[in-house]
Structure to design on (1312 residues):
């Protein structure tokens, strides 16, 4: 293993854009329930940030005919890291282009994953500077925790569905320099991978799409930092008619505390309590879960992730097959 | 409504005796995992108490051929209350007898519920006095929190299965003076009742036995007082091979935080986090849940109580019907 | 000990009226930060309730020249209990009068404590009925948890300062039938008592006024039910410029989790996390703390309650003595 | 800013050796109360690890005449990073030597900080492999959480006292490549710095020694990952006669939850709840606290860090100056 392999090139997930057929419902969810600040409104899009998100926005909500992820952007650890990653992507597959058209961010390299997701890499990000009345006394906090709903701190990670997990893992390892912290194998087939290059348990996860579709989103996760807040959030969602899919509980994979719900537009959102395992060892060995261990892997407590949605529903939804029950 | 109806006659659940076919496993569960103190050992029985249980014991474990509850005893709020309750029971049904043969307790009135459970009423209870080295600096705490496992504080409540809930509720209301705080109705049929005369959400609950059996135990609950400890307990149970049935989550009924497991002998045990609603209004009106509200009633979070066990399994187990799956 | 002594006659603290010289600040504190609902506005007064308070209001904020408690009212467990308690008060001291002029409550007996506090007893209280949009799916919850600030559930208890604690205790024991659960003695002098007749650790506490003043308020406490929420509240108070006096920590006395702050008008308010010890034994023996045990009594964690405020400041404030430092 | 400046060269704090004049007391503290596993005993030393520490040991307890830190070792992110860091240290100051004599670790570079602390850098670390009965079902967990006391997960960070903070910061920035995330300035003087190169808020902190001594330890911190466990720990320490200095509360600096105690040998130990801020931005700008902001910096809740110990006591203790009160 060479020195380069230990180098952290991807800092974190900087922003995600979601499409929603119900923009009013989706904005009510993120602003009124999850306490995100609106920082800009332009055309069919609204830009939002959690009170600890460092940049101008971490979530862009755009009206569209169908719930789906438009794109997600990872920030590199330096301008040179961006150049290295783009060169690797270009060497690996031809698709990709530089753009520079998003509010609050500079030049950005857009590319397509082997399964067809739109992703981006960028270095240039404008730091958010709070106006006087939103400034927090806690100096590492870019803005005050608002008094609205149960405010999430920040965007945390991305979980993608893929028709084939292995090419995704290979591409993210090779071109982005991500480390595979944990994986699930079902016989010979990779059923899921959890990847990061930071100390987080994952910045990006990829799970097998049981519907066989390509390029779909499983969920976007937002960070509370406190497990109790996922319990509080479940109570809020219950009383304000947001469908809870599963949780609060704790995954064995990543040891993180989770709560899954569907925002009114139909995208699955995870509320993430404490971060679970922090990967401090630079030579952390990939943990591989087999199907006989999967009960502990999916939940340490009593949760059974619902087969009819958790492993089949993603956005954009795909038409159900004739004989199938379930949400999609 | 008369003055007498507001009188609290039953103080709390003082003790439970469980039978187990696996006494070593059951004692390991209660002592090593749940940190209960052993206070006596006699014949086939071991007497245990949590570190905040006020008397000599709250749980007696007795070896026996089948997992079941031998009896449970409620303590009255005064000697006179005991007399009043016994007179009422005697007026209501002939079965019952005074005994005085349990370590740490005085004269006790044993009776049988309409569904056949063995229960007792008593006033005389010997207070536990800790030896010097077990004395806590926290004066309301009868003994130090031990350093073993994840210690429960004390016995909390009892949940009984009954072939017919309504006669149980009638008897407990009339003869014990319990208040029905919440109930579930399935059309015309009472499916469950949660009763207390204290500020607790329930000292005794009764749920319909889906197997139609008589006199069974659903679960005995022990109190942590802190929701996080049910999360910690789930992790402990997972890694020490105790089957988790459901939770941690929070019931809508009673608002209490729950975790259900099976002790190695087969009895279902609930770990109870924070107490949920405390009933401060003396004229609290019974809340009635209908089946269209039952999702929130059973869990505020995403838990689906497992049909194949939660509503059918009790102790003693009954033989499964030919076409049925499930634990019993 | 007679049967009567075990009878619970006082159900709970139903309402408190506070005066404030800064009504806008005080209302911002209770409504915007603590998420209380406003249920009425009349003259110089605003009526508020927490989302689990059972009646029309639990807190009345009235503009006045100086921060102080106007009165506090306890609800009895039955109409007959009210009659018995009033007869006892009348036999004990001549002052007192029936009134019937408060919104949402019926006839009320007003009396004066031996130290001069205005208190009331009542039975008739109008239950709050939420309009459709504020109704909770959790049936024991009288209204939805609001999305504003960090909402408290309900009023919890009252802590009074007294120039002499013992006559207060004697009066509350004799005339109200309260049980003294815990007390602090400083040599021969009672320095504090914590009293209830319910399972709560205290509905009313009385502490010695180090300034020797009569009839002052130490604090009014509001209930979260979850210890984490006192941590969340401390962070909110810090960033929104509310002075934190002490906490979050846990008292040894009552085992309850506390956070003390001053509302903008100057009254001390306690945010109460989990309830601490629940007194299930009807014959609970009073725990007496001596001054050598007081460190554990005041805080289980590292908090030192600040001498210059906690033991001397109350409302109404009294002029400082010439040589003294401190908040008053 | 060059590419190299974003490179993470120091992975984490791998191990600490403490000296204690009371080895029985110190081992009881770490094993019985904090649930650390003993992995080796040799001469006057015992080697311990928390259940999530990845290597053979993270804490070595050695009998000695006075409480102090013998040394602390940081692990680099790669073998090449070790070489680069050693070359930089050697270029910067002449002292330092390669050794290879510690159980479970390979060749190690020992050096002395500008203030005289003994520190080490290493890459080679033997991973801990649990025997069958200690293996956890949670695959990222190197061993089962034990059933003893309130087990910490792992070693977290180091806080050093220094007679002069600035040379320490300069040396750690220049030679170890650490990033200064937060600092406190008292006029022109640096009073404290919190440094890491990972996403943790700090691996090493340095605070001004108010006694002016050189090369002392302020504290070693161990990680729970859950804020509630610091509350649980405070209760345990209180009842088992461990002196609590301050907390549980949350620092504004780093946003981390803290509890400070003194182990029986006299070294200050921090129990660390949730990790506080995770530094995801690679270009995180150092936050500088001035003395007028220090109240929020030291604690978000009501804690006043005790002047007479927190800012003056360190190990080894130094003789008190004639006019001074306090612990040392």
């Amino acid at each position: 293993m060479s020195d380069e392999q230990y180098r952290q090139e991807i800092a974190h997930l900087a922003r995600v854009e979601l499409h929603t057929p119900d923009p009013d419902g989706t904005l009510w969810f993120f602003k009124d329930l999850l306490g995100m600040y609106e920082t800009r409104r332009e055309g069919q899009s609204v830009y939002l940030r959690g009170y600890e998100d460092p940049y101008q926005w971490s979530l862009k909500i755009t009206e569209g005919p169908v719930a789906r992820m438009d794109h997600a952007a990872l920030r590199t650890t330096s301008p040179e890291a961006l150049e290295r990653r783009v060169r690797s992507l270009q060497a690996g597959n031809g698709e990709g282009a530089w753009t520079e058209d998003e509010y609050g961010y500079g030049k950005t390299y857009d590319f397509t994953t082997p399964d067809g997701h739109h992703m981006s890499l960028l270095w240039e990000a404008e730091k958010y500077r709070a106006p006087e009345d939103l400034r927090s006394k806690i100096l590492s906090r870019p803005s005050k925790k608002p008094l609205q709903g149960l405010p999430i701190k920040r965007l945390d990670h991305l979980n993608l569905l893929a028709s084939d997990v292995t090419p995704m893992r290979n591409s993210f390892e090779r071109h982005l320099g991500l480390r595979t912290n944990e994986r699930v194998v079902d016989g010979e087939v990779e059923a899921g991978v959890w990847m990061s290059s930071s100390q987080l348990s994952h910045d990006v996860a990829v799970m097998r799409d049981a519907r066989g579709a390509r390029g779909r989103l499983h969920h976007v996760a937002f960070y509370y930092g406190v497990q109790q807040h996922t319990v509080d959030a479940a109570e809020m969602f219950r009383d304000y008619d947001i469908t809870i899919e599963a949780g609060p509980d704790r995954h064995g994979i990543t040891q993180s505390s989770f709560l899954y719900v569907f925002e009114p537009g139909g995208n699955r959102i995870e509320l993430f309590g404490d971060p679970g395992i922090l990967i401090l060892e630079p030579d952390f060995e990939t943990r591989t879960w087999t199907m006989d261990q999967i009960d502990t892997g999916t939940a340490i407590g009593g949760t059974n992730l619902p087969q009819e949605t958790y492993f089949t529903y993603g956005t954009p939804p795909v038409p159900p097959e004739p004989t199938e029950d379930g949400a999609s």
The longest strand of chain D covers residues 10-20.
